[in-house]
């Protein structure tokens, strides 16, 4: 699963929906792989407003990537900043979590990721 996907996932446990701690999920023992994807600056510019920047900063640091700036770049800044474009492209589009776990910061539930696919099925007592 792409790092981008992690920016849109929260814990599936019902009581976690209202908790700010359930997002973003925290990768644990993550084995990363990198796909070669062609850089598409316009796609990144279009994505930017839909991304939860604070969550992405947390994810980026937890995966061992360089820390992102505190504020997201504006569309104009991003278009003219080749390094930022490349860094975001690598992080969001090319990096995949292949194996590992995603941990909820609220309930501690661990979702397994196997062969790039996260399993969000919950044991019956949590549904
Ligand atoms: Zn949870």
TrEMBL record:
It comes from the Eukaryota. One of its GO terms (biological process) is tRNA methylation. The keyword Nucleus applies. GO terms for molecular function: protein heterodimerization activity. Its main location: cytoplasm. GO terms for cellular component: cytoplasm; nucleus. The keyword Nucleus applies. Belongs to the TRM112 family. PANTHER family: MULTIFUNCTIONAL METHYLTRANSFERASE SUBUNIT TRM112-LIKE PROTEIN (PTHR12773:SF0), UPF0315 PROTEIN-RELATED (PTHR12773). This is Multifunctional methyltransferase subunit trm112. It comes from Thermothielavioides terrestris (strain ATCC 38088 / NRRL 8126).
